Amino acid sequence: MTGKDQAVPLDPALLARARRLAADGGRRILGITGPPGAGKSTIAEALALELADVARLVSMDGFHLAEAELTRLGRRDRKGAPDTFDALGYVALLRRLRAADEPVVYAPHFDRSIEEAIAGSIPVPQDVPLVITEGNYLLVPDGPWAAVRSLLDECWYVAPDEDVRMERLVARHERFGRSPEDARERSLGSDQRNAEVIARTRELADLIVC
Prior knowledge:
Layout: H1 12-22, E1 28-33, H2 40-50, E2 55-59, H3 67-73, H4 87-99, E3 104-111, E4 116-125, E5 130-134, E6 154-158, H5 162-175, H6 180-188, H7 190-199, E7 207-209
Helix pairs in contact: 5-6, 6-7
């Protein structure tokens, strides 16, 4: 497990629910969403580890636009906002994963240490029954993101106590080189604007994970 947020225990009920989904037959896709710092990556990675024989994890973060492109667009200061991802590329990947008609599908991975996505990093073999995907905007009903929900068999919304979420988020920014002041400014600034967009999608989830 390589969770980037503070570790949280994996609820046995969540594991059992994901295991049932994997056993339903054919290819199933489980989405895990929530605001920055909620712990969705930690839960998704813990599930993928426990279900390693039947599941693979693919993150929406692999579709971050490159730093150079964000600079060209004048959006580098809003990295993480809905329009700073290749949403259509993410939808296309989910469609390929759902079809499960290729021997293997390769997904990108986002490397926080260099703040860039690395293509072809995550192999998903055809016989893997469950794909777990996590990210901020899985339930956003607008624009290209609107196509995501119909490609998910279930979507869980992670909603911890707000003070806990903020503490995790600030700590994560500090781990990746921001000063305490910069980390808090980012968490309360652009990250919080993104969190407000995500919060409006909570009612669309199949399950709320607190």
